[in-house]
Amino acid sequence: MTAPFVSSGALAGVPHGFFGRRGGVSSGALVSLNCGLGSGDDPALIAENRRRVADAVLPGATLAGLYQVHGNRCVIIDHGSDPTARPEADALATRTPGILLGILTADCVPVLFADREAGVVGAAHAGWKGAIAGVTDATLAAMETIGARRADIVAAIGPCIGRASYEVDDGFVSRFLADDPANERFFAAGKPGHAMFDIAAYVAARLAAAGVARIAIGGQDTYAEAEDYFSYRRACHRAENSYGRQLSVIGLT
Question: Cα(68)–Cα(229) distance, rounded to whole angstroms?
């Protein structure tokens, strides 16, 4: 059995998928397609869920992942890499067929990249810390080192927390305005001392500023769409002991 997923027209012809929480074997608060290795779920169930993801997109592929740390490091993966190593980083790139790059999220922004002409793909986990630190810029740079041309790279932004669900305080806003006053456009008015942050739009703007000409935004809100997606913030608000993670993947045939 495989699992349902969302794809992006921007990446048409490239094996990829943004998965949610449906189509897996986990139970309870983690039902059902929990792919998070650090979630406290039964490792056997996580392994089966991850197998279903891979089979749905690129059967027989090696699924490569990371120990994500909310930074801006991108690692290059090839057939000489150990797919179980999980290096500390927040993005991957490859030009090697048969490898599926995987990014875990639970409100943060998953970004998938492809240069079809060069045969290079990438994937990034952009939480707010990694986004402002330039994780997408690092992914583009890494892709270029293995043959991609920035003008030919397309990017798709997958399910993440939406602006209507992402309340932040004024201190958070100040960090972004100190980095660039133009970032004010990504915040809408909230209750006193707070604002609503459009992280997907911020990531898209970073990509555009870096020279990516085609950027697609899926528009799903992981916090609001509880039946379809895991959400760290929603789990916190509900005082749940754990939270699941969804997987976004891309590879080459």
Answer: 19
Average pLDDT of the residues of the chain: 97
Query: Rounded to 5, what percent of the chain is helix, strand, coil?
Result: 30, 25, 45
Tokens describing residue 140: 């583009």
- What are the tens digits of pLDDT across the range 43-84? 999 999 999 999 999 999 999 999 999 999 999 999 888 877
User: CA 172, CA 194: separation in Å to the nearest integer?
Assistant: 9
Backbone angles phi, psi at 105, to 5 degrees: -145, 160
Give residue 35's identity as a one-letter amino acid code. Answer: C
- Segment 156-182, tens digit of pLDDT: 999 999 999 999 999 999 999 999 999
- Please give the CATH architecture assigned to the domain spanning 13-162+198-251: 4-Layer Sandwich (3.60)
Best CA proximity match to 54, nearest among 35, 77, 28, 30: 35
